[in-house]
């Protein structure tokens, strides 16, 4: 693929996918992308150390809640960055004991 991106399909679940991504990334960060359902799976398993959220000021009549069924209090995320503008609000949540980068 142009740019050197390689896609691999994993059928063993999210833990296997994350383990393989960590191995391939060596010591670098492993970003997890996807829709709310994908992110909720990783959150429920406590596998996300840092969460970057961009909130746009628009009213949606439908959609899928990001945190539905996820006990965010139990995961103990702390807000480590907050930046607001006319177009969006950016929030970075990090689990205690994790470092930047």
From TrEMBL:
Pfam families, alphabetized: RibD_C
Q: Which Gene3D superfamilies match?
A: Dihydrofolate Reductase, subunit A
An example GO BP is:
riboflavin biosynthetic process
Q: Locate the Bacterial bifunctional deaminase-reductase C-terminal domain: which residues?
A: 16-88
One GO molecular function term of this record is: 5-amino-6-(5-phosphoribosylamino)uracil reductase activity
Q: What stretches pass through the bilayer?
A: none
- Recorded protein name is Bacterial bifunctional deaminase-reductase C-terminal domain-containing protein
Give the source species. Vulcanimicrobium alpinum
């Amino acid at each position: 693929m142009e740019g050197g991106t390689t896609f691999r399909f994993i059928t063993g679940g999210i833990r296997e996918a994350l383990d393989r991504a960590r191995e391939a990334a060596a010591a670098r960060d492993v970003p997890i992308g996807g829709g709310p359902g994908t992110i909720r799976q990783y959150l429920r398993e406590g596998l996300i150390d840092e969460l970057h959220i961009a909130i746009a000021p628009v009213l949606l009549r439908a959609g899928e809640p990001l945190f539905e069924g996820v006990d965010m209090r139990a995961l103990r995320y702390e807000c480590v960055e907050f930046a607001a503008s006319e177009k969006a609000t950016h929030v970075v949540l990090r689990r205690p004991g994790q470092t930047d980068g």
